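Aim 2 progress. For Lipase family protein, the working sequence is reproduced below.
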Amino acid sequence: MEELINNLRGYAELAQASYFNFMYINNDEREMDSYKIGQNRFPKDKDNIENLEYTKTLSKKYKDYFIYDDSIALYPTLNGEFGEIQAKNFAKKYEIKFHQPNTASGFSATLFYDKEKDKFVVGFRGTEGLWSMDTLADIGLTFGKGDFQLNALKQFLLDIAPILNKVDSNNIIFIGHSLGGYLAVIAMQFCDTIDRSLNTQFNAIKFMASQVYTFNSPAIDEIDNMLMRALAALLDKNIMEQVLNPQKVYCVYDSGGINIIASAQYGSHNRLPIYTGKDSHSIIPLTQTLYF
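Predicted structure tokens for this construct:
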């Protein structure tokens, strides 16, 4: 049980970090130092300019600071939510191997590397908004049209393939909160069922996830078959219509009364209720409850 709690704590923390803006973070500290941050958009906060650092992207102390990138019209902002100690501990433990900033469809995901456990964790960003059955139906309809975030998801998997193809699947985890958890399951299904005998671009994806952890993700039992049929058609039958490995999926949710979360998600026999006392869809109460 202690190991399970430790794992959940780490994955919840990573699911929360998947919302943060890592678009300028990489393993080259010299390149990071070339970017400055400050509290004013215009004019620049010349008296209080600081170097951009990994820990600052995580810290709520620097939330809403502007990143002074003169190559774009509007300066992006930092949006970290961690306290100082949590931010420092996170930065020591995890490296950012790849980050996909917001696409036009709103898709964003990050490939983290856990230096202590030698594991790669793919975090899919979700939404902090409230869910309804109408929202879930809209997801199904939009996937059926072939847009939403599917194309961005496919491209992201192709982008991280050169890194993860060399990694044992036992060391690959997919995670996500809310919509991000749903995307994590779709990504698992995609990687598990690609027909690699066909000569397509997807042959470049050779990796698979050993486990998927979803946090307050939507219940999609009424529309999942429709979604899988739509995905199979969109991918030229490169994905099977039935989830093969639901036992891989662990659905963690706030047990304080929320009815529109993971209780009917894929792998619902692996449901893990966590009482936060907040009755909240947000990832933050889950992370705080497990972390502290």
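Residues 257-269 have pLDDT under 50 and may be disordered. This observation will guide construct design in the next reporting period.
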